[in-house]
Amino acid sequence: MPRLSSGFVIAGAYADKIRRTMFAQLRDYVRRDKEWSQKIAFAVAQLNRFLYTVLVEQIKIDKGDVVRIRIDYDIDEANKNIVWKWDTIVIEAFRRIPQEEVDNITKKLISKAVEIATAAVAFNIVKIGETFDGDIIYALRLNDRDVGAAIVTPVNEALAILKRGAVIEPTPAIFEKVKLEIPSGRTLEDVLRDTLSTVVQSARHVSADEALKMVNAIRERASIAPIAKYEEVEEESEE
Predict the structure, then answer these.
(1) What contacts 13, CB < 8 A, 6 or more positions away?
(2) Taking every annotated instance into account, which residue ranges of this chain make up the domain Thermo-DBP-RP2-like C-terminal (predicted)?
(3) Average pLDDT per run of 10 along the chain, which is 239 residues long?
């Protein structure tokens, strides 16, 4: 059974490392059939969504800490799917907290892994500026941290267009050209939040570098400082 191992990696960079590792392991499938690329990206997004819940929301690990993630998976060639073996996942976190705490939280959440991996993401949406031609620029936040940005064109009280948006957490992704229909009694921000909450299912899953580049390009439109990139560290040895 194939196994994914992230190696030792800075917590702020694990999502991109997992994506690159999976595509490297399954490169032959992608070469034979390009549809595998979308399937792999979707599976990676699900795994990263689960890891975000464990590492960021529950353990509250810092981006500069080091983690290592290992998990087995099956390759369903008939249906072109990656099936995570959630009961094999091992998450190691290296900071001044007991490993037992990490293990206990991971085990507690494994039974809900599928639910968590596809759950909606509750971004906090904050208006940070407007462009000269009337577009609205929003910062997207999780746990009071900036993790993305979006630019929206209001059309009228009942309609707006999400021109583009991107997030680097819980999994790097890009949104492009989404119509936002605003029902009576709801705000543009409400509808935008609902649309972005389906990041795992509906967005285009990309590398962390690509997502961060778009986030910072949007932030620049509002003269907001860019989000810094977190570099990974290489694993010296694998058990």
Answers:
(1) 208, 230, 231, 232
(2) 121-220
(3) 92 91 94 91 94 92 90 93 95 81 88 82 91 92 90 93 92 89 92 84 86 94 81 44
User: Within this chain, do residues 78 and 129 fall inside the same structural domain, yes or no?
Assistant: no
Judgement on whether residues 72 and 158 belong to the same structural domain of the protein? no
Report the DSSP beta bridge partners of residue 151: 137, 164
Residue 227, domain member (yes or no): no
Query: What is the largest distance, in Å, between two alpha-carbon atoms of the chain?
Result: 59
How would you classify residue 14: left for phi > 0, otherwise alpha for psi between -120 and 50, otherwise beta? alpha
Query: Do 157 and 60 share a structural domain?
Result: no
Task: Based on the fold, state whether residues 109 and 134 are members of the same structural domain.
Answer: no
